[in-house]
Structures are given as structure tokens and as C-alpha cells.
Amino acid sequence: MKGKNKKKKVIISTVILFLITVVICYLFVPLFSSLKFGLDLQGGFEILYKAESIDGSKMTQEKMTATYKTLSKRIDSLGVTEPEIVLEGSNRIRIKLAGVTDPESARSQLSTVATLTFRDVDDNLLMTSDVLSSGVAAKVGQDNSGNPAVALSIKDKDKFYEVTNTISQKSDGNNMIVIWLDYNEMTDSFSKEKSSCGTSGSNCLSAATVSQGFASDVIIQGSFTKDEVQNLVDLINSGSLPSKLTEISSNTVGASFGDQTLQKTLVAGIIGVIAISAILILIYHFAGLISSIAMIIYAFLVFLVFWVVGGVLTLPGIAALVLGIGMAVDSNVITFSRIRDELYNGKSLSLAFKEGSKSSFSAIIDSNITTLLVAIIMFILGESSIKGFATVLIITVIVTMFTMVFLTRKLLSMFIKTGYFEDKTKLFINVKKEDIPDVSKNEKAKKVPFAGINFFKHKKLCFVISILLILIGGVMFAFKGFNLGIDYKAGTNITIISDEKITKKDLVEDFEYFNLKTSSIQITDSEIDVRIDKSLDGDQVKEINKYLETKYDSKVNIGVVSNLVAKELVKNAIISVLFALIGIIIYISLRFKFSYAFGGVVALVHDVLVIASLFAIFRLEVASMFIAAILAIIGYSINDTIVSFDRIRENLANIDDKKLTKEKLEEVVNKSIADTFTRTIYTSLTTLVPIIALMVLGSKEIFNFNIAMLIGVIAGTYSSIFIASTIFMIIESKNIGKPKKIKKIYTDEYEEKKIKGVNC
């Protein structure tokens, strides 16, 4: 009868779990479709401006805010639904316009100063655009002949009447009002542009004879096309920019580029998730299935939070999500490993679950907080793609704590409480019944994984290998430096996709036609990457883009980075890494002690240097996402190290300080590494799977990022075992036998009584 009740409870719990999974999967597609996608996933235009005051004075926060508002108005007139305008530093503005199909028109409309002025024939200023109505100052209209014209709405009619009345009283043909757009005192004058006024290309928009004072609306007429009139109307209505904008970087992504990138990344992500699920089920059986379902819920909640906060999903963001899935599974692996340990010590399944969940909590909290710390530093100091990566990483860490800790445990607890799996530990978590000792018969643990391995037997060899690799990388860096991408080197990167056969010779000749020298040309299948060390301006980008599209019937993507941006990115990259290391030292010192923190940071520096060395040796490109990878590995590696440190601290707590020797210390540390080795391998495996999936199937734009992550995960696993623990052991062995410092907690009065022999 009891058996039937247990089965019934399991069936009910399974149905509940199945329904939850079905609902989540059903809601996944509409949720994903409703997300905002960045220009790298749907095509569009990104531009970074340096803002300078028109009159040469210092840029203030008020001027930057005014510029921001004016640009917002202009973007509204472009019809972009989800624009991003971000103020960076004290004088830079980054604009991302996803979905824009005509980047050159957008570039022109955004940066034009658009100062409308009314002047006399001698170029004296009569009125500014202040006399016009706010909001809709201009409309598309027609002149008396039915040609396109601009209709201006006058707000200050008294001022307008006064000026026009004064002008009407002049003689000898001087009774004219000239309307200018962006009048330049150095180059513009009515005497020079009288014949071209009102034509395309002239700043002189209109010159009208005034015979009497009037206070009605005004028509600007000339030989304008309908599109030119519409552009003038949009510029006038968007207001005058309070600052001069200089383009310092830009990137244009065709819609087809974005579609291909999104499809490739999604396929890679889905395959990565399926592979992780298969591994978890293979290793942990039913508990692995629960973890896989929790992982699907986790991914859904990450997207849901991202949708709620109005985030814009980018390629680096998806990379962070896929990476986050691999790292999030670690929380379950830590818990499952602890449950297994308790079972191997003879505990019942229900008690093993309770004790294992409790003992794994501190390691999970510490490892996730250090990753969160690094992500926050990335968000504060990073720019553009790095900030997007950090945003998703922050969300994944927070959601991990809810889904992979709270939710997974609740689901497991629901099934354990049925009692069905109590004698089916093999089915539940892949622990054979015969491996569980009978504590009532004083049986000792029958299975202790990796107990016979001495992890420190070859510690000197490990140090030599690491040092040699880093030295070789250092020599390569000293002689050749890094293969810097345009993010850090400045210049222009051009990607061409065409079905036509294009040779390097053809492209060299093409760019020589524009007096440009290519620094590298890489051809893979139908995609070609061209690097130019010079930063092209907007007109050059437009001209080259049109030329290549026309000649090769191709799709072209052009990215430009100036020296100013490159220097800023290098500085921010160095500061980000340093702050991450300092933050980790402080946190681990508070949670553990300095010997742990020092060992952990040495391991992190080792990982960073190994990645940098291999990139220098194999001449892999170092771009902005390389720093995101470095910071992500810092978060991952310290996550791995903390799990080992947590077990070392726990095992050392069971040793009497008086009985602790150097040999005993090494024995305890070695046992701790053995205790956590299974978890370390499984976590590394589940993290590597999505990375490899992204490398093989994902977009080439994040290929080098994934290479850095691949190297970093392997180096991080290695350093957690052989570097961090060894450094900790060396420091702690020097403190063995030394008297511990006891804080002075008594008062001066107590000390005085003690000297006099008074009883206290």
C-alpha cells in the first residue's frame, strides 16, 4: 500500500513538473520575439561622437544634456523605434540605431548643426530660430507654383513685424531678408551665394524682398526636391544643436548580417543547452533531469528580467547568457557533489539532501558574489559591447541564485518527500546502493573518489610549465606585441559578403583607387575582412560602401574607430582588470583570510597571463570583447577556486592547531582537492560545451572571445588545483607553530589591577 502511495505522489509531482516545463517552453518563443535586439542582431547603425562647444568654451553637463535632447528629437524624426543614446564620459555620445537602412542619411541628420538665422543682404544677424514656434516650427508646404517649400510658423509676431518693417524701408535692393542654415562667418556671404541661394548644396536657403512689415507665417521657396524639403523641416523642428559633434567611431551592420548572426548564435546556444542537459542526466540521472528543467526555467527568467528592465539584447549578451548557463549549472553540481559525499558517508537520501544542500550553500554564495563583483566592475567601467555583456552577466548571476539554488532544491525536495527514491539512489543521483556504507554496522565509506591521488606530487613541474609558457608569451609580446583589433589600434574594418570571386589583388587595387592602403585582407568562403589602419570619415565610408556594393553586388559592413576611442578603451581595460583583482582580494580576505586571497589572486593573474601569452604566440586578434573574456574568466576562475578553498577551510576546522604540521597541512589540502575534483571536472565540462558550440556554430564576431574563454576555463581549472592551493599551502606552512595574535579586549583599568595583583 505504501509503495502505491509513493508511486502516486511521484506521478503527481512529475505531472506538475511536466506542466511547468510545457508552459515555460510555450511562453519562450513569444517572450524572445518581444525582446529588443541590438544592431548586431538585426542590422543598423552605431556612431560615437565627441561633443565640443560651438563657442570654444568648456562642455558642461547642461550642454551635454541639451545635446542629448536635441539628438533624441532628431532620432524620433528618423522613425527608429528603439534607439539607444548613451552619454559616455564628459564629452562623448554613443548612438545606436537598430533597423536603420540608410546610415548616411541618419549620419547627416544627426550631426548637422542646423542653426537657422535671418540676415540682411550684408549678412548682419536680424533674428534667430527663437522667433519660430516651438515643437512644430516648420511644415512641408508649396509655393505659388506648387513646388515643394518649407512653411515656417512664427511665434514672436511682434519681433517679426518689427524686423520686417525696418527692412522694408531700405532702398537700392537692400530690402531683403536672407534665411540661412548653419551660416559660417568665415565662408558664407550673400554676395557670393546670391546666384545659388535656394539651390541644393548652399547654406543660403531663401532670399525674399520685403515691401512692408508683416507678422504672418513664412514660406521658404527654392529649387528644392521633396526629400530636401522634408529634411529641412525635420532639422528645423529638431532644434539647433548646442554643440559641435565630431565623429570618432562608427559601425554599420546590414540587416542580413544581423539575421545570420542571430540564427547562428541561437542554434549554437540551443545545441549547447541540449548537450549540457545530456551530460547532467548521464552523470546525475533524475537529479540531472531536474537540473536541466531548472536550466530551461533559468534561461526563460533571464530573458523575462531582461524584457522587464527594457534591455537591448546584443551578440555579447547572448554569449554571456550561454556562458552563464554553463556557470549556473555549477551551483547544482556543487550541491549534487555534496549530496553524493553524504551518501558515501552512510546518510539516508533525505538526510544527505538536507546536509548536502546546507554545506554547499556558502561556496555557492561566495562564488556567485565574486562573479557578480566582476560583472559590476565591467558594467561601470566598460563601454558598448562590454557593458551589454556585463548587464546579462549580472542578471544571470541573480537569476542563478533563485533558479539553480532555490528552485532546484524545491523541486528535488518535492520528489524526495514522496519517499519513492529513498532506496533508489542510483536512479535519483547515480550512487549505487552497494557504495553506501551501513553506519549501524560501523562500516566506513566504501567509495572515496580520487582519494589515492597526490595532486601536489608534481607541483614544481606545474610551476615550471606555467612560467615557461608565460615567458614565451612575454618574449613574443616584446618583439611583436599583440595583434590588436581596430578597437585598440584604431582604424577601419570592412566586411564584404559576395557570391562573386574576389581576389586580394582586386581589393588592393580598389582601395588604392581611394588612396588607401590595406594592412590585412582575409578571405574565407564568401566573406572577406579588410583592415585599414586609417580611420575613415563619414563621407569616405559612404563612398566606399556604395562602390563595393555596386562593383561586387555585395553586402558591406564598415566599422571605424579613432585613436581617441582606442586609447580610452585600453585605459578602461587595464583599470577594469585591476579593480576586479583588488575587489576579489578584499572580498576573499573578509570571507576567508589573506592567505586564501593571495593564492586566489596569484591564480587569477596566472590565468590572465596564460590567455595573453597564447594570444601573443598564435597572433590571435585582441579586441574589446577580449577584455570581456578576461574579466569573465576572472569571475569563473575565482568561482572555481572558492569551491576548493571552502572545502580546505572546512577540513582544516576539524584539525587541532597544535597537531597541525606541514605534512598534515598538505594532506588536508590534497584531500580537499580530491573531494572537489569531481565537481571541478564536471563544471569545466558543462562550461566548455556551450563555448565550443559557439566556436563551431556561432558567429565569427565572437570567435576570438570564445577562444579566450576556452583557454581561460582550462587555465582556470588548472590554476585552481595546482596554483591557488599550492600558494595558500606555502603561506600557511610558514605560520605553523607561530603563536596566534590575541586581540587586547581588556581595559587599561584591568591592566592596572593585574599589575597590583588585585583580583578581577
Task: Give the termini separation.
Answer: 69 Å
Strand fraction: 5-15%
Widest β-sheet, arrangement of strands: 3-4-2-12-18-15-17-16
Q: Average the pLDDT over all residues and give the rounded result.
A: 81
The count of DSSP E runs of length 2 or more, i.e. the number of strands, is: 19
**Total helical segments:** 23
Largest sheet: 8 strands, antiparallel
Q: What gyration radius follows from the Cα positions, in whole Å?
A: 34 Å
Low-confidence stretches: 742-760
Which secondary-structure class do the elements indicate? alpha+beta
- Helix fraction bin: 55-70%
Shape: elongated
Describe this structure in words.
- The chain has 760 residues and is an alpha+beta fold.
- The protein has 23 helices and 19 strands.
Question: What is the fold's blueprint, element by element?
Answer:
Blueprint: H1 2-33, E1 36-37, H2 39-42, E2 44-53, H3 61-78, E3 84-88, E4 92-98, H4 103-111, E5 116-119, E6 125-128, E7 138-142, E8 148-152, H5 157-168, E9 176-181, H6 190-193, E10 204-209, E11 218-220, H7 226-237, E12 243-253, H8 255-284, H9 286-308, E13 312-313, H10 315-344, H11 349-381, H12 385-416, H13 425-429, H14 459-480, E14 483-484, H15 486-489, E15 491-497, H16 504-513, E16 518-524, E17 527-532, H17 538-552, E18 555-561, H18 563-591, H19 594-617, E19 621-622, H20 624-652, H21 662-697, H22 703-735, H23 748-756
Parallel strand pairs: 1-13, 14-19
Antiparallel strand pairs: 2-4, 2-12, 3-4, 5-6, 5-9, 7-8, 8-11, 9-10, 12-18, 15-17, 15-18, 16-17
Helix pairs in contact: 1-9, 8-9, 8-10, 8-21, 9-10, 9-12, 10-11, 10-12, 10-21, 11-12, 11-18, 11-20, 12-20, 14-19, 18-19, 18-20, 19-20, 19-22, 20-21, 20-22, 21-22
